[in-house]
Amino acid sequence: MRQDVILQTKIRPPLPRDNGIARDRLARRLTEALNGRLTLVCAPAGFGKTTLLSQWARQSPAPVAWFSIDETDDDLMKFWRTFVRSVAPFVSPALPERLEPLLLAYPNATIRSILDILLSELEEKAPDRLAIVLDDYHTLSDASIHDSLAYAIDHLPDRVHLTISSRTEPPVSTAKWNARGQRLDLSAKQLSFTPEETGRFCRDSAGLALSDERIGQLMRWTEGWAASLQLISLRLSEHDDPERFFDQYRGDDRNLMQYLFEEVFGHLPDELRTFLLRTSALSRFDAPACDALALTGNAGRVLEELRKRNLLLSPLDDAGTWYRYHHLLSLFLRNRLQAEEPGLWPELNRLAALHFAGRGLMDEAIEHALAAGDSAMAAGLLAGHVQTVLRNGELATLLRWMGQLPPEAVPHPLALLHSFVLIVTGQFERARAELSRLERVAEGLEGDEAREIQSGLFFVKINLAFSAGDYDQWYAYAERLPDMLPKSPMFYYLNYNTNEPLVRRTVFGLRGEQPPGIEALSHRIISILDSRGWGHSLFAQYIVQSVAEGYYEWDRLRDGEELLRRVEPVARRQRIGGLLVPNRIVLSRLRWAEGSRDAAFEALEEAAVEVRDYPDADHWLSVLGAARAHLLIREGNLAQAEKELNRLRLQPEKPSLFRVMEYTTLARLLGARRKEKEALQLLETLMRLNKREGSLIGMAEVAALRALIEAQRGYRSAAFGYLEQALDIGHPNGYIRTFLDEGDPMLSLLRQFRDYRLKQRTGLVCEPEEAALGYVSDLLTRFAPKEQPIARPNVPEPLTAKERAVLLEAVRGAVNREIAERLHLTEGTVKVYLSRVYAKLGVSSRIQALHRAEELRLFELE
C-alpha cells in the first residue's frame, strides 16, 4: 500500500452522511451556476459546505471532478499534480502520464507554460460540461498556487466550471467574473438552514416532529448553523425528555459548540471516549491506523458504531474504509486530550508515524513525526524518502519539512540538499545563509566527515554561482574542483531535462547562452568527473550533451559527433529520454548538414523505436515526429510533413512551449505552404513564450523564421528587423547553424541585409556595427554550395537506410528472427520497421511489399 491510497481519498467526493437532508434550493443554484465560470462557497467551519457539495456532486447533471485539499497540498507541484489526477477520469486516463513529466520541469519552466498544456487538454477532451470542486481551499497559503489558479480560471474553457469551497475569501483574483455575471457566491447566510430545513433535519435525524415554537427556538440558538443543529439533534435523540432539554437550555452559553460537544461527549461510553481522544491525532484514518493508536484491536467495529451515532464522522471513499473527523470535532477532541493527558499527544503521533511508515505512506509518517516533535525520527524518515520527493518535484513540501527541523537534527547530506533545493527554487539568499551555517559546522569536524561536507559545500556553491549567473566565481570554483568533488551520488543523478528537445534549451544548458570560456571549463569538469569515476553519471552526460549541441551550433560537426557517440549508450542504458532524444535530434541534423539524408531520418527512426516503451513515451515520440516533419519540409515533401504533424493534434491558436519543436515546425510548414499570416501569428506567440522562459536559442530561431517569412511575402524592412534580432542573439554566443540550417532563403536574406547595411554606412563606423557586419560576412562564407535534391520517383516517402536493409532481407526470403539476427535488432524492432515500410509503400502485407519493391526497382543495384 503506497501514497496513491491516500490520493484516492482526496479526489473523490466524500460520501454524504446517513442523516443528511437534501438541500434542493442550494443544489439548484449550483446547477444553474454551471453556465458561468466560477462558484465560491465561503463560510466558517460547520456550515455544511462539504456536505452540500458532495450531495450535489452525486446528482449534478454534469460530471464533477473533486479535490479535497489539506495543508499537505500547500506545494505548487503537488497541488497541480493532484488537480490533474482529479480531472483525468473525465478528460483522459492518460492525462497524468502526459502532464506529470512536464510538472517535473518546474522551476526550469514557468507554471503558466505547464498550465497551458493542461488547459489545452481540457479544451480538447473535456466533456460538454465539467465541474471541478476544490474543497477546503483555505488550507493553502502558497502565493504561487493562488496566482497560478487565477491564471487557470481566466483561461478555462467555457464548458468547464470551477467551484471553490473555503472558510475565507480565497486570495485569488476573480472580481471580473463577478462583474460579468459569471460568478456565484454562496455565503454563510445562504448556507444557513431555513426553519423548514431545520424541522426536516430534526425529523429525519432524531425522529422528532418539533412544533413551530421549538423550531423557532432552535433557529434563535443556532441561526441555522449546520454543525450545531447536528449536535443538538444528536443530543435530543438520546435525551430521556427532549422537551426538558428545551426548557433547561437557554441558548446563552458563551460557546455553543463547546457546550454541545461536552454534552454529547459526556454521554458516550468510556470505550468510545477513549477511542475518540486517542485517534484525534489522525487527520485521516482507516481501521488499522486507529488500532495502532487506540490499541483496541477492534477499530473497525468502533468506527461503525461512531458512524451509526452520526458523530461528525466523514467517510472519504465509497467503500467506507477511510474517514476523517469534522474539523470542529477534531479541534474539540485535541483540546480535550491536551487538558486531560498533555503528554500523550507526542506519543500518539510517534505511533502514527511508525504505523504509516510501515505501510509505505511516508508523507503521513513524516508529518506525524514532526507533530510529535521527534526531530531525529522525522529527519531519518525524510532522508529515506527525499529521492521520491525530488522525483515528484515537491520542492515546496521538502522545504516546509526542512523548515520544521532544528538544524542540528538534520544529517549533513540532507542539509546540503536543502541548500541545493533553495538554489533551484531561486532562494539564493537563504541558500547562502544555510551554506554559511554548514561552513561553520564543517570547521568543527575532522577526517572523512569534514572532507565530505566540505566537498558537498563546494559542489553546491558551484551550482549557486552558476544559477545566479556569477560566471567569474563559477570559473574560479572550477579550478578547485579536482580536490573538492563530493562522493555522495545524490549530487550526480538528477535528471536535468524532462521535456526539452535540446539540452541547450534547459536551465542546465543556459537556455542557449554560451559565455566565454564555457567550452574549456566544460571539458575540464568532464575530465575531472571521468577521473573520479563519475563519467557515466547523468550530471556528466548532460554536460557532454550540452557541449555536443554547442559544437553543432558552432558548426564544429566532427567535434560534436564525437561527443554524441559518448552520450548515446549511457542514455539508452539508463532510459533517459531527456538525453537520448536531444542526442538523436542533433545527430540527425548533423547528418543532414553532411548531406547524408537517409542517415538523418534513420537517427530519428531509431530513437522512436527506442523510446516507445519509456514512461514518458508520448511526449518524446511527439518531439521526434516534429523533428522528422522538419526534415521532410527541408526535403520539400510538404504533404508527408503535414501528415506527420496532423498526427500530433496541434492547436496553433493555443501553442505551448512544452511542445516548442512541434509548433515551430508547424510554423515552418505554414510558411512553406504560403500561409504566411497564420505562420507569423503562431511565431508571434512562440516568441512571447520563449521570452517568458528566457530561452535565447528559442528566441533566435523564431526571429530567424519571422525574418524569412516576411522576406517571402516581400516585406523587406520587417524581414531585416527580425533578422537583426536573431543576429543580436547569435553574435555574442557564436551561433552559426541557426542560420546555415535555413538554407538558400537565409543565404539570400543575409546577403541583402549585408548589402543594405553597407550602403547605409556614412562616415566613421562604430566598432559594434563593424563587428556585427563581420559576423554576417562570416556566416555567408560558411554556406555550402547549393545541393541538388535527391530524386525519389514514385515513392510517396523515402525509406531510411535501416528500413531498406530490413526490406532487402525480406526480399531475400528471411523471416523476422533471421532479419533480427543479421541486422542486430530485436524481433519487435523488425516488426516496427516492416510496418513503417508497408505504410510508406502503401501496402498491407509482406507479399505486397515485395511486389511493390520490384515495381519501383528499389534493389536493382543490391
Automatic annotation (TrEMBL):
Superkingdom: Bacteria
Domain HTH luxR-type per the UniProt entry, residue ranges: 792-857
GO function terms (MF aspect): DNA binding
Gene Ontology terms: biological process: regulation of DNA-templated transcription
Keywords: Coiled coil, DNA-binding, Transcription, Transcription regulation
Coiled coil: 631-692
A Pfam family recorded for this sequence: GerE
Name assigned to this protein: LuxR family transcriptional regulator
